[in-house]
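On clarity, I found the account of how folds are encoded harder to follow than it need be. What matters is that the chain and its backbone geometry are given together, residue for residue. The format is easy to grasp once an entry is in front of the reader. For illustration, here is how one protein appears when written out as sequence plus structure tokens.
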Amino acid sequence: MNVLNIGWSDFARTRHTVGGSRSYFSGTPEELLDLVRAHWHRRRPGTGQSDLDGVVVVPVPPDRFVSGTVLVKKSTVLHACFERRQPQENGFVRVTAEGEREPARFAAVVLYSAATLLEKEGTRSGNNDWEIVSLLAGPQEDEPMNPLTMARNMLAEPGGTPCEYSAWEFAAAINYWSQRANAHVLTE
């Protein structure tokens, strides 16, 4: 029997760290790879995708996942800074929030195929057929993608994965993220 050839992208490995501001898995990297393999049959096309060839989302049990979001209230302390995800990408204003993270009631892992990673002069982090690029964990199933990420993708900006979104998808994402921010962490 062939073992699904998946691995972590360097991008995800540095962004989804235990105790970081984004969602993360508290088990080992290999345990997460095994979890994805066990639930691979549940994969579906990623947001804005129409097939299972380039970007997939694999729903997994939320156990051992920690959400990266804080529900913002009037009293929430916010922090803003200029950030660039990768050196070749455009910078943006990133807002983080002090407070308790929302519970991770749902979790999913986003993977890109080797071919998708190489589009637009991209790179792969290993010799895998698929690489983990993002971990999603939060209070809502099918958490909307961050609207800034959607815009980066739709406009085919550096670091984006070209795809189309509907006006409804954008509106739902804007509404969801207007009430949340990533957790503020002093060590990042």
Summary: The chain has five helices and eleven strands. The chain has one domain: 6-143. The first strand starts at residue 6 and ends at 8. The mean pLDDT is 91.
